[in-house]
Write a structure and sequence with these properties.
Blueprint lengths: L1 H9 L3 H14 L4 H12 L8 H10 L8 H13 L7 H9 L9 H15 L2 H10 L3 H7 L3 H14 L2 H17 L3 H14 L7 H11 L3 H11 L7 H12 L5 H16 L6 H9 L20
């Protein structure tokens, strides 16, 4: 039956694959690999609330199984929150899944990915970016780099935020990890989904045009292009640096472009260490000395 499911996916019939896997699961309901095949199919190629039952089944049993790992809590918590299968915020959702009293240090990077996705869903852009940044430390990367689930949740957080560069980075990791997947059915699902997502990340010619205008010192024309590019390239370091410079020149103003300038500043201020060039501008321009009013700490416990 697994072979038939894979063939259905390869033939572009994910709904048929889902039915086949359902039948296989009914005959052997304790096979967690097949259960996660249903969950992955329901989150990627066959977007349907039919998979909700299997998400809840996994959520109820995961802590008692060999799949009792932060990777899967990360996936399930994110899916449950987005699908409104829980009304609880991330901390309570995670602890209910793990049946633990606290979130361990090793779980933090995975948990921060969930919080980033949750904040993005809530429209709290600054908090979402701060949580994503917290997953990029050297220690965090060492824990998460081999986790398909982590990169999947991060990808969706970046997608919600319009962070194309972040999506590209996540999808590159997902492509590599899908290739390394040992289970044939999971591998087929993951590779097919990655292939489906690639067209979303085509290079935007307007980006190159904006950078050319900026390099040619046609700042007002560049500013108009950057304003239109930002919603789909949010927290892009190159664009953010241009926005900061244009704001210092008063081509972009807080009165007319306040949210854009705030998000551009947050691209750098959310990090543990500010770049030297930014520190130099901060000393020179009052605009950059004003504190950013919206804080990620409004969304819950501190980032660790």
């Amino acid at each position: 039956m697994d072979l038939n499911a894979r063939k259905a996916i390869q033939d572009g019939k994910p709904s048929s694959a889902f039915v086949i896997l359902q039948q296989a699961h009914q005959s052997c309901p304790y096979n967690l690999t097949r259960l996660f095949c249903l969950i992955w199919l329901g989150q990627t190629l066959y977007l349907s609330n039919e998979a909700d039952k299997y998400v809840l089944d996994a959520a109820a049993t995961l802590h008692k199984s060999v799949w009792n790992l932060p990777d899967y809590y990360c996936l399930l918590a994110s899916v449950m929150i987005e699908g409104k299968l829980t009304q609880d915020p991330p901390t309570e959702t995670w602890l209910r899944l793990s049946q633990q009293k606290a979130i361990s240090q090793a779980e933090r990077p995975f948990f921060n990915a969930v919080r980033a996705h949750y904040s993005a869903l809530q429209g709290n852009v600054l908090a979402a970016y701060r949580y994503l940044i917290a997953t990029k430390t050297v220690d965090a990367k060492a824990i998460t780099q081999q986790s398909f689930e982590f990169h999947f949740v991060s990808y969706h957080a970046c997608r919600r935020l319009g962070m194309v560069q972040g999506m590209r980075s996540s999808l590159a990791a997902l492509s590599k990890l899908a290739e390394e997947e040992q289970n044939a059915t999971l591998k087929t699902i993951k590779q097919s989904w990655v292939k489906q997502e690639l067209p979303r990340l085509r290079t935007n010619e307007k980006y190159d045009e904006a950078m050319a205008l900026y390099r040619d010192k046609q700042f007002r024309m560049a500013a108009r292009q950057i304003i239109t590019l930002w919603p789909e390239n949010r927290f892009d370091v190159t664009l953010a640096r241009c926005v900061i410079a244009l704001a210092c020149q008063k081509i972009l103003t807080p009165q007319n472009h306040g949210a854009l300038i705030t998000e551009a500043r947050w691209t750098f201020e959310a990090r543990q260490t500010l770049p030297d060039w930014y520190l130099a501008l901060t000393k020179k321009y009052e605009l950059l000395q004003q504190p950013i009013s919206s804080s990620p700490q409004q969304t819950g416990d501190a980032i660790v």
